[in-house]
Amino acid sequence: MGLSVREYARRRGVSHTAVRKAVQTGRIPQEADGTIDPVKADAAWDAQTDPGRRAASDPKPVIEAPVSPAPPPQRETTPAAPASAGATFAQARTAHEVAKAQKARIQVDRLKEEVVDRARATALVFKLARQERDAWITWPARVAGQMAAEIGIDPHLMQTLLEAHVHAHLDELAAIEPNFR
After folding, report:
1. Inter-residue contact 12 to 45 (CB < 8 Å)
2. Which pLDDT tens digit goes with each residue over 7-37?
3. What is the extent of the structural domain holding 49?
4. 14 by DSSP, 3-state: which?
5. pTM of this prediction exceeds 0.85
6. Residue 48 maps to a domain
7. How many structural domains comprise the chain?
């Protein structure tokens, strides 16, 4: 048999309105007959209450509600991952603070211009690769005559051979895709 809302409020040292709100929002359980089991309610109240908002006169220590073991993660999670439904207030608050700290660090890095925009970097790499490819494609026509004269062969044959080998090499380079992750 449990306590009435007013009895539990007196025992807890809070107003009966606070207890009613806690019952209505699901922070503490209520028995089927409308009474409150003080052991269950105390554990739930402490687990669901922000330690910074607890009354200074409340001598009760914070009791963590038992959390069932989590299933093995299916993907890699970060400390800032959203809290699960069974998480205590302290765990949810910690996850929130970690996420805020990570966001602040990214904003500072942006201000220091240490963060690179992925789309801009990809466009720059593409532009540089295109310029390098164009330079290599025009190279055989520029040097084939000089090289042919040095070794004594037909300039057209030299240009054709150089173009074939340069194009084969550029085809190998085209298979490389930059990954900015």
Report:
1. yes
2. 999 998 999 899 999 898 888 888 888 899 8
3. 5-53
4. coil
5. no
6. yes
7. 2
What residue type is 147 in one-letter code?
M
Q: In the numeric block, which tokens belong to residue 33?
A: 């007959």
In the three-class reduction of DSSP (H, G, I as helix; E, B as strand; rest coil), residue 26 is classed as coil
User: What is the per-residue pLDDT across 64-77, written as a single tens digit (0 to 9) for each?
Assistant: 444 444 444 444 44
153 assigned to some structural domain: yes
**What digits encode the pLDDT tens for the residues 124-159?**
988 999 999 999 999 999 999 999 999 999 999 999
Q: Scanning the structure block, which residue is given the tokens 């003080």?
A: 38
Please, which residues have CB within 8 angstroms of residue 133's CB and are 6 or more apart in sequence? 170, 173
Asked if residue 179 belongs to a domain, the reply is no
- Is-contact 142 135, C-beta < 8 A? no
Residue 129 falls within a domain, yes or no?
yes
Q: What's the number of CA atoms in the CB half-sphere (13 Å) around residue 70?
A: 9
Tokens for 58? 């409340």
